[in-house]
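Lecture 7 notes. Example A: sequence first, then its structure tokens.
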Amino acid sequence: PAQFVESARKGSIVSRATSIGSTSASSVPNTDDEDSDYHQEPYKESYEDQRRRARTQAEQKRRYAIKKGYDDLQAIVPTCEQQDFSIGSQKLSKAIVLQKTIDYIQFLHKEKKKQEEEVSTLRKDMMALKIMKANYEQIVKAHQDNPNKGKEQVSDEMKFNVFQSIMDSLFQSFNASISVTSFQELSACVFSWIEEHCKPQTLRDIVIGVLHQLKSQLY
């Protein structure tokens, strides 16, 4: 009987322990299932994250565009490729690249203006040559049409008189304008006299006046 009572008591204790363990196990949440469900759900990016990512990408594109622009300028502008001994072998800063670019553009503007002036001068010279060519062609044509016309009509004496009258007119202005106090003054006066009294229009007026004067003497 004593053994039977002891066995019954032990069985009761084991039974209560099993019951308590089952109850405790049933009250604990199933974390494994919840973890598996959590990892299976995809991550949803918030609106703020999307805006932040878009701003970052835009800033990266802007910086890349600026860097590429400076690199292109440095490759195009010849002065940027030349060695600058003031900075040694260091990479050119953005400020230096911009300044060299501005200087080069100003240089190109000056060269363009200079070339335009040269082209304008060449056009004027070409126009003058065309006029002279047309005049000579008319003279040659007139001579070919009537080779004996005007022959022996103007004597050498008349030619000399025309030349003498022209030189006399020029000498009057030359004598009134030139100072012979020193060689320096003479040189300066000669150049100023040539610029003032030997212009094509001035010489033309002198020759026309001389011809009219001789014509009135002859007729």
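Example B, a different protein, same format:
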Amino acid sequence: WCGFLLAALLSPRMAGLRVDFGLLLEPLGFIKVLEWIFSIFAFATCGGFQGETTLLVSCKGVVNKTVTAAFAYPFRLNTVVFNAPDPKRCGGTWTDVYLVGNFSSSAQFFVTLAVLVFLYCIAALVVYIGYKHVYQQNSKFPLTDLAITAITAFLWLVSTFAWAKALADIKMSTGASIIPGIESCKAAGTTCRFASVTSMGTLNVSVVFGLLNMVLWGGNVWFVYKDTNIHNQSNRISQSP
């Protein structure tokens, strides 16, 4: 699309900035603004998350010592280790304990798509507001916009459901269910109790914004389609006797 736009703007017959903010009140521009805003919330709520899970450990010479494992985006939990209960590591019975799972692919897919959508929306709004005449005169622009919109709607569907599944697994890998899998907690004289884990409400919100983006881009397909010559040709055929 950028190549088409550059070629069009270099054409003397079609070049020239014509700013018209009135398009933002039309569905095509208004939805694009919403898509831009929602993409910001999508990558901010997911990419900015930081949390920790906490256990209470009692072992040789230690009573209810708090041990924590801090995790964050992109959620490579298999690289996150709990700190030792004491300098002597419970008399040598405590070994490094890692969380389980690597969910970076789903998280990065979701956040990367949101960032790319954010940049695309800016470019699209520049074209809509300043170069609407170029967009309308060159039939390739609406068709390219339609293809990108349809593909983006599909990508939002895939990335959101992949991220939602990963989030469910992250909650399992940082919750109370991790204790039975910790070998150090099975040592004689050692007990472990789950204390807490950081609330993942913002991550739940990121999934909601993913779904909202999917709906927005899916609905936007129709409004972009109305600007294509395919829609115009079908209208002429239906109106002809």
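Note on Example B: The CA atoms of residues 7 and 15 lie 9 Å apart. Residues 1-6, 231-241 have pLDDT under 50 and may be disordered.
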